[in-house]
Amino acid sequence: MNAIERTATKYRHLRLNDAATHLVELLAQAEANELSYLSLAENIADHELTQRTDKRITLNRRKAAFPSDKRLEGFDYRHQTTITKRQVSTLLDFSFIEQRNNLIFIGPPGVGKTHLAIGIGQKAIDAGYKVLFRTALDLVETLELAEMKGELKKTINQLTKFDVLVIDELGYLPMSRQSRYNLFQLINSFYEYRSLIITTNKDFTHWGEFFQNDDVAVPIIDRIIHHSHLFMLGGESYRLNQKMNN
Questions:
Q1: Domain boundary at 63, 83, 101, which?
Q2: Has keyword Amino-acid biosynthesis (predicted)?
Q3: Alpha-carbon distance 47 to 24, whole Å?
Q4: What's the CA gap between 119 and 100, in Å, rounded?
Q5: N or C: which end of the chain has fewer CB within 10 A?
Q6: Cα separation values, 38 from 31, 41, 43, 211, Å
Q7: Domain boundary among 63, 87, 102
């Protein structure tokens, strides 16, 4: 075992695996560029940090469970004129996450609500935040199952480990009494502690329709909108328009 191999082995013992794997390459670059010892040490540290960050982002993107790889770069602001690129861009400093605020996208089906929610979630992951995507139906079923097992609190605690929870398509289907209670427990746990990104086809004046109980709808709405940015999206369905033009 030569000196480089011995050094790489020591790096692996220190869990500097990427630095160990690319040590020969990093040494060659240092020699070619006549770097100082300090610059070489800094390059090795930077390489390890970059690789760890990339791996963490990749892992967090997989855990987010986005249904599709939607990106803000692909959002058609020419079609959806009720929200501007500047409005969306102002959200990308992620002060809304740091301040535990929510984003609410309201509008009819097909106008880009989910695309925006996923796109912002993707950017949040790139910035180092943990994001989870769930449709409202999947989330309600998850909470119902947890409640039946006596694990509702445990499941909600697991969800609050994410910095942002995206709840897609809230309001498309009515909820049972137990589902409304479970959702309230979740929203209450996120209130002023974590951020929500919600897409819905109903404005708040009609939320009683799918909660079927104003006594539950009011406290849920109150906690969601108290610290939130609301965006009303209008226009014709982008998907339907694409289909008709093909």
A1: 63
A2: no
A3: 13
A4: 19
A5: C
A6: 13, 5, 9, 62
A7: 63
**Domain residue limits at 228:** 72-245
**pLDDT tens readout for residues 7-57:** 888 778 878 888 888 888 888 888 888 888 888 888 888 888 989 999 999
Q: What is the pTM of this model?
A: 0.83
Q: Hey, which residues does 103 pair with through a beta bridge?
A: 197, 229
| Pair (30, 117) in one structural domain | no
As for how many domains the chain has, the answer is 2
Beta bridge partners of 165: 132, 196
Question: 67-124 pLDDT, tens per residue?
Answer: 999 999 999 888 878 899 999 999 999 999 999 999 999 998 888 999 999 999 999 9
Same domain for 91 and 53 = no
Tokens read off for 165: 């929870």
Can you read off the two tokens belonging to residue 172? 């498309």
> Which token pair is 88?
């969306």
Residues 179, 141: Cα–Cα separation, whole Å: 8
Closest by Cα among 80, 4, 118 to 234 = 80
